[in-house]
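Summary of Year 1 activities. Much of the first year was spent building the evaluation harness for sequence design. The harness presents a backbone, in tokenized form, and records the residue chosen at every position. We chose the following record to illustrate the format because it has been used consistently in internal testing since the harness was completed.
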């Protein structure tokens, strides 16, 4: 891998910001392409993967929490969850304290699929992290956190616990 071009000391100028946007776009596109074949083999798409990923990160996630995380319509999420449930990847149960809540959890088949998809993502991210180094990874995380609105950062941080 070629050495990355260092950021200009004038990193707030338009060319540097455009470069960051482009790298973010192309990096994410290549990262997600690494799982497209696995999803297609199941007849699923990236919206299904995002739901699987976040349900795996937080078992018993409520439907409303997942709606907030994904920032999609209730109708779109309903379609995704119905397909995942019909294929035996996600199960729903009612909340213990609030019977109106719908809690989401991966089935063993869903956990297996999500694990296989994550393995492809892990390989790409680990290679990129390794070539960039620990300091760059921390800086990358700081930049990405800066893109998340302040009021949403607590929800994002809670996923890592």
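For this record, the design step produced the sequence shown next.
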């Amino acid at each position: 891998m070629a050495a990355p071009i260092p950021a200009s000391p004038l990193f707030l100028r338009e060319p540097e910001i455009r470069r960051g946007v482009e790298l973010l776009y192309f990096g994410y596109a290549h990262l997600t392409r690494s799982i497209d074949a696995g999803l297609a083999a199941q007849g699923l798409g990236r919206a299904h993967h995002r739901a699987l990923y976040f349900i795996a990160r937080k078992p018993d996630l409520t439907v409303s929490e997942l709606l907030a995380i994904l920032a999609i319509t209730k109708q779109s999420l309903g379609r995704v969850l119905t397909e995942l449930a019909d294929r035996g990847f996600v199960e729903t149960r009612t909340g213990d304290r609030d019977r109106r809540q719908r809690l989401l959890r991966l089935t063993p088949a869903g956990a297996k699929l999500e694990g296989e998809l994550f393995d492809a993502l892990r390989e790409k991210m680990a290679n990129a992290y390794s070539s960039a180094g620990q300091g760059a990874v921390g800086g990358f995380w700081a930049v990405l956190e800066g893109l998340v609105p302040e009021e949403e950062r607590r929800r994002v941080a809670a996923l890592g616990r």
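The beta strands are 61-62, 90-94, 102-106. Quantitative recovery figures across the full test set are reported in Table 2.
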